[in-house]
Amino acid sequence: MKKVLFISLLGLMLTLGACRAGSSGNTDGGSSSSVRPMRVVTDDLGRRVSVPVKVSRVVSLAPNLTENIFAVGAGDRLVGVTTFCNYPEAAKTIAKIGDTMNPNMESIVALKPDIVFVSTASQIEAFTKTLEANGIAVYVTNPTTLNGLYGSLEKLGTIFGNSESAANIIVDLQGRESEIRTKMNSWPGGGLPPGGRVLVFVQISKEPLFSIGKDSLLTQVVQLAGATVTTADIAEAYPKVSKESALVMNPEAIILSESPDNQEPNDVFKNSPAVKNGRVFRINADIISRPGPRLIDALEQIARNLHPEQFPG
Length: 313
Hints:
Blueprint: H1 2-22, E1 38-42, E2 48-52, E3 58-60, H2 63-71, E4 78-80, H3 105-110, E5 115-118, H4 121-133, E6 137-140, H5 146-160, H6 163-183, E7 198-203, H7 217-224, E8 227-229, H8 243-249, E9 253-258, H9 273-276, E10 280-284, H10 285-289, H11 294-306
Parallel strand pairs: 3-4, 3-5, 5-6, 7-8, 7-9, 9-10
Antiparallel strand pairs: 1-2
Helix pairs in contact: 5-6, 6-11, 7-11
């Protein structure tokens, strides 16, 4: 009898140990995740995150993440998104949990997600403790290059068990990027367009005047489109630019991240070659600002705008 009791207790101890190991990275809040098969994945911040082997319910705290999750074929597993998540159309019908910087924590917990996806390190500090205290994993994606974006899509494919779908979308995006690269390096006589690369100012906000800097993924995209970005050397993602500095930049083209309050170039550019020659281009702010598949749409639009001669017909 004593032997039977010992074996039973040993089995119980091993089971509890397995449950604790499976929930590593999360505080066990008593949810069902503590008894589900778990695995460890590494997010873009290098954090080791424990997630269920089969992920079935997730929340996105950023529009680009929502688009990326749909892109890898896992949109049906989104149970909560932000009020900014407006693409694809199906995202509009998913429960809203507040906006990106002010999500409603009670709403998120009530949805019982396996994982909450956040887009930047700034979000994680505020939310991680509360979410993990409720047994909810927090996964950060923060691509700063196009290759980083492809890597994020690949990781999402792995997390959702949709690696083939992720591989397909990555191949498509890389192919389109490669076509633009080829066009931007095929001018007669060398790799540069006649007259050199176009000097471009990207206006994110008219007043105050904000642009893109060294740490912005968009800077790489605009440069791939055959441009020299006037603010590329500023060591920030979205620097505020003084009017004195902007005046000296004297851009040949201006790209506007189009939104209701950013429809025209700042007045400081009124005598610039860009305005005088009508080379002011508007790109939908949602497409140009989100590190997701539609960023390649932005790349194609910018390249066509700056170098229409490379896109005959």
